[in-house]
């Protein structure tokens, strides 16, 4: 043993890693727009099976950077505990996964007062599954450094609960100010597409990539990769530029998906060049169905119930919320009052569709 | 007698072998001792002692081995004699030919083993599903086995079911993009393109201008103001207000304040900024604002809140100035200050969007309101101040 010790003169010292202060220093208020930055907790109620736990992790990654990636929950933690923590930490949204015999559920709630939307997860695929299905999964390093954009489409039917869904999901991510936002920080996008016929919401998560248009793949790769290109099969250096190889056939039909940049985005995407917007899915993927809207945080009056005949006129039957009889009457009054001054016409989803 | 001699030969050989074997560990021991000796410094005397001990130890082994060998030889001799003499002779001959006495015994051993093996093989076994079972309780064994099998089956099924429940809804995506996914990607792409174009358009205007320089900042503000006015001039303001901005991501300013209370972004939430309004000092902005107000006051229209809320359409050169009692007079310094500090960004104040706050110099001040606000109100709630009663302004406006 002594000899062994002598031979190893260098003793490995674990480098002292400075504790990251960023987590504590995350601002509550956006420095530019002055708006409050929404933050979120993603956690589960009850015990989740393996794939759902993975889904929870994926959702946390999706909600980055304003979420608790390593949120530890214990069996005895109840909703109140999370709520108590949420206040001081400035957490504004809860995403709660749960599981019953029939299917998994996702609840999206605003803290501390609600409302709460309950979604039934009809189908879901994890980020891992998505990556496995792709030939070249893409994950740049700073993909999760900025919060994603959100696109809501098909919600413009005028129903109250859909409007609520729109608002809630719009406000789940920080606002962007188009005067100051950097395009390089827009790396991801979350899409929620409402299907009118099936009443299902498709939840997708894509990464955004910009590619210069009209540049052959070979040259693009050359500029991107810093690598010496393979010139074995070429007669002359000029062939490298002139021989365009095979062009991407998808480029032609994506004329609509091009943007003209005003500022340099990266080495390949320069100002005043046209760039094509390419999306690649990063998962998770979910098919949701809005089942219930509650006024409070996982409690309170039921404003909408899929199975309860609209929720406003009748109280929901059979559901796990057989209480709140008195509150239903009160809410009816509220609704009438609110209907009178309800004249919201605009819906951005309209123009996204056409 | 030949046998004895032959026997003795292998015996000797064995002994030699044994000696060799004996030597080996001795050597090992010595080596080990040497290895240790470097550290422990064993004296020569001690070493001798160790060696002697080792030799004794090995010699003992040898003797034992010898005895065993002799016994084994006797056995073989006896067995060989009992079996067959001709075989023995053959063995002898073969042995003589090759002069390898060890092999003879080997063949003998094989023969015995072969006989035994043949015997076992020849025995007929009852045809049974279980195969040969030594136990007397064949039925019991069969029962147990069947039970085990059933148990395993049940367990497997339960596990499968549990797995199915856990995996419910979990779908592995296809390797290719089907039409639905393509459609979804198309929607998302459209959204991204729209946003990027809007951002580019907005940032092109302020390109080359440094917002930190006051001159440029003024320019930027002017341009934004122009954009704002041009938006005001649009015919159907309320319908296309936010779509023209092209900002599809969450932006509460563009949301017309929904009527339904829980729909509102600030539903039952107090703005944390409001708590520290008095701590933020902002004088530069007020200066700029004061200068800018000079030109815009000329064609402005004073309106109080009730009037404004009824108005729905504007012409391009109309500037609506909202007069709120909390702003007027010296008693409302609190409210004024608050608005001014939030001037950095257009502020959402109960679904009214204050684009600019103009400080009117006292000579222009006909009414007792030194400060007015230009309001962009695509929508004004009639339930004004109902949901947020905690902010100082609303507290006062409710009294009114």
Automatic annotation (TrEMBL), chain A:
SMART domains: Brix. Coiled coil: none annotated. InterPro entries: Brix, PPAN-like. Residues 319-354 have a biased composition (Acidic residues). GO terms for cellular component: preribosome, large subunit precursor. Signal peptide: none annotated. Pfam families: Brix. GO terms for biological process: maturation of LSU-rRNA from tricistronic rRNA transcript (SSU-rRNA, 5.8S rRNA, LSU-rRNA). Residues 38-299 form the Brix domain. One of its GO terms (molecular function) is rRNA binding. Residues 307-354 are annotated as: Disordered. This is PETER PAN-like protein isoform 1.
Automatic annotation (TrEMBL), chain B:
One of its GO terms (cellular component) is preribosome, large subunit precursor. Residues 11-30, 38-47 have a biased composition (Basic residues). InterPro entries: Rrp15. Residues 59-73, 84-99 have a biased composition (Acidic residues). GO terms for biological process: maturation of 5.8S rRNA; maturation of LSU-rRNA. It comes from the Eukaryota. Belongs to the RRP15 family. This is Uncharacterized protein isoform 1. Residues 1-100, 231-264 are annotated as: Disordered. Pfam families: Rrp15p. Residues 48-58 have a biased composition (Basic and acidic residues). Signal peptide: none annotated.
